[in-house]
Structure formats: C-alpha cells, structure tokens
Amino acid sequence: MKIMYYVILVVGIVVSISGGEASLASAKTIEAGDSSSSWNGSGEVQDLVDGEQVINGIVKGVLIARHKGEGKLIVHSSKLVCPVRVTVNKKNDYKAIAGLCTIVAHEGKDVAYAQWKC
Question: How many CA atoms lie within 13 A of 37 on its CB side?
C-alpha cells in the first residue's frame, strides 16, 4: 500500500506539470502561465510472479490554469481524469508509470489530452 501512495504522489506531480503545459500549449495566443491541480486517486494492486506488481488506478480532480490576457489575470478551471498504470518489480528495482489524462474545460466545449510516461 505504501507504493500506491508514492505512485499517486508522482502521478499528481506529473499531471499538474504536463496537463498545464498541454492545455496552454494548444491555445493560439496565450502567453505562458502556470497551473496547479488538486486530485484524488484510487487503484488496485495486483501481485505477479518474481516480486512484480501492476497497479491500475484512476486520478480525478481539478486543474487550475492561470495566464495574462488583455492586461488582466485569467483563471480557468478544468476537470481532470487520468487512468494510470504502474508496473513495479521490487527485485530488479524497476518502475514504469504511464497515464493518459483527459482535461475538460468550459462546460465541455474544450477538451485536451495529456499523455505521459516515467
């Protein structure tokens, strides 16, 4: 269970970084801003042979993006949903994390995707 908390922490950091950049990068004229997220995750750990584990989970939350536009600070909030898969092998000290996030803003009018791997 301890590894699950570590994984969720890493996922949150990656999501807040990659999700913010992906949503700002797709805009036409927005200057670089910053983003942060608040999320909650859950998952299931499956033990495999030779010390290997696979963790399938999902992270849901809110992504807040801030940037300047027309001389004022503009704040967007978006829904964030990220299915996550983590492969861990304790014997070989190996970890692989992958996820695909869907970010929905403006009441479903704008949708962005952020894919990441660690």
Answer: 30
Give the pLDDT of residue 21.
42
Across the range 43-51, mean pLDDT stands at 91
Q: Which residues contact 27 (CB under 8 A, 6 or more apart)?
A: none
Assigned token pair, 60? 């849901």
pTM: 0.60
Cβ partners under 8 Å of residue 48, min gap 6: 54
Nearest Cα neighbor of 60 from 80, 77, 90 is: 80
| Residue 26 DSSP class | T
Q: What span, in angstroms and rounded, lies between the C-alpha atoms of 109 and 104?
A: 8
E-strand stretches of 7-105: 34-47, 52-69, 72-89, 94-105
- Compute the mean pLDDT over every residue in the chain, rounded to the nearest whole number: 77
Distance of CA 57 to the CA centre of its chain: 12
Nearest to 65 by CA among 39, 17, 33: 33
